[in-house]
Design a protein that fits this description.
The chain has about 100 residues and is mainly beta. The chain is built from 2 helices and 4 strands. It has a 4-stranded mixed sheet with strand order 3-1-2-4.
């Protein structure tokens, strides 16, 4: 079982290179499990699995009308800490004197 979360989504699109891409509602999913990180069962919610797509979204990502992804689960963001690998939890911008 992999510890890197992949994507489970409500719909799919075919990219310009012919590879399936997630669309619609996006959740984090750990391959080998039958539910998303936030606890939704994949079979009952009819979420499609995308083991080849990493869940690397953050809370500061902005979605536009042109994006195939329409909604990112906030509970999955919180559970995966909403950070990309190697990114620090916080950065002090203006330290006190």
């Amino acid at each position: 079982m992999s510890s890197t979360p992949a994507v489970a989504a409500s719909s799919e699109e075919t990219g310009p290179d012919g590879v399936r891409e997630p669309g619609g509602e996006v959740h984090a999913w750990l391959p080998g499990q039958n539910q998303t990180v936030c606890g939704l069962p994949l079979s009952r919610t009819r979420l499609r699995r995308f083991p080849h797509v990493r869940f690397d979204y953050t809370g500061s990502d902005v979605l536009t009308e042109a994006d195939p992804v329409g909604w990112i689960c906030p509970r999955c963001l919180a559970a995966t800490s909403g950070r990309r690998p190697g990114e620090k939890r916080w950065v002090r911008n203006a330290p006190r004197p």
